[in-house]
Amino acid sequence: MLSPISSRDNDKIKQACRLRDNESARRQAGLFFAEGPKLCLEAAKSCRCATLYATRRALDHTPELAALDAVTVPVSDPVADKLSSTKNSQGVYGLFVLPVPDPATLGTARRILALERVQDPGNVGTLIRSAAAFGFDAVLLGPGCAAPYAPRTLRASMGAAVRMPVLETDDLPAALTELRGREVTCLAAALRHAVSLDAVGRSFPRGLCVVIGSEGQGLTDAAIDACDRAVRIPMTDLAESLNAAVAGSVLLWHFRGLPAADGTV
Length: 265
Known about the structure:
The protein has 265 residues and is α/β, with parallel strands linked by helices. The protein has twelve helices and eleven strands. It has helices spanning 11-21, 23-29, 37-43, 56-61, 77-83, 105-108, 121-133, 151-157, 160-163, 172-181, 221-225, 244-254, and strands spanning 31-35, 49-54, 71-74, 92-97, 111-116, 138-141, 166-168, 185-189, 194-196, 208-213, 229-232. The strands form two sheets. The chain has a seven-stranded parallel beta sheet, with helices on both faces. Strands 1-4-2-3 form a four-stranded mixed beta sheet, with helices on both faces. Strand 2, helix 4 (56-61) and strand 3 (71-74) form a beta-alpha-beta unit. Helix 1 (11-21) packs across helix 2, helix 7 runs parallel beside helix 8 and helix 7 (121-133) packs parallel to helix 12 (244-254). It is elongated, with a radius of gyration of 20 Å. The model is unreliable at 260-265 (pLDDT under 50).
C-alpha cells in the first residue's frame, strides 16, 4: 500500500475530482469515478479498478476492498471529504476503466431502451437500472442525455450502467430508422397520435425498442416520426403526467419477458 495522501491539493486528488465532475476528462482519460464501497465493489465485477482511494477506517470496515486488483492509496478524512460528491463521505473512491460497449450490440439486441434529452442523471440512472432489472439487452442514449458514468447517474443505476451495454448516438431518429430496418418495433412514449398501452400487443418477433424523452419536453417530432407508433400509459385524471423514470419503468415492466438476444425470456 502506498503512503497516505493528506493534502487536499495533491495532483492525483485534483485529477480524481476532475474525473468526478467532467465528462470530457472521463473520456480523455478512459476512466470513470465511483464513490462508496458498495458501488466500487459492484463496478469491479464488470470493470477494472485502476486506483482506489480510501480512508484507513473505510478499508478496515470493508475488507472485501482488499481483493480488488487496484493500486490502493490511503487518504486522510479531509481528502476523502474533498473527493466526496455527497454531503457525507463514505471514505471509498475508485477510478475504473470506462467500459467500451460493442457497437454491433444494436445489431443483435432484441430489447432496447432508447432515451432522448433525459437530462436528469437520477432519471437516466433509474431507467438504466430498470432496463437491467426487466431483462433489456441494451440502452441507447441520444443527444441531450445525462452522462451515463457521472457519479449521480451511477448511483441511481446502482452499478447497472457498467453491467449492461450503454451506447450513445448523435442522431437518435437515424438509429431508430436503422432498427426498424431490421424489423425491430420502435414504440415512442408520447401523446401525439398515441394508442393506449393496453391496446398494444406483446408480440414483437424481431425485437422491441422503447423510446423515452424528457419529462419537460418529451420526445422530438423527429424521434416520434422515426418510431412505428406512439403509446401512452392509461392513468386517472388525478395525475397529469408521470416522471420520466417512472413512466419509462412502467413501460419496461410491461414489456418484460420478451425473448432476449440470447433467446432467453
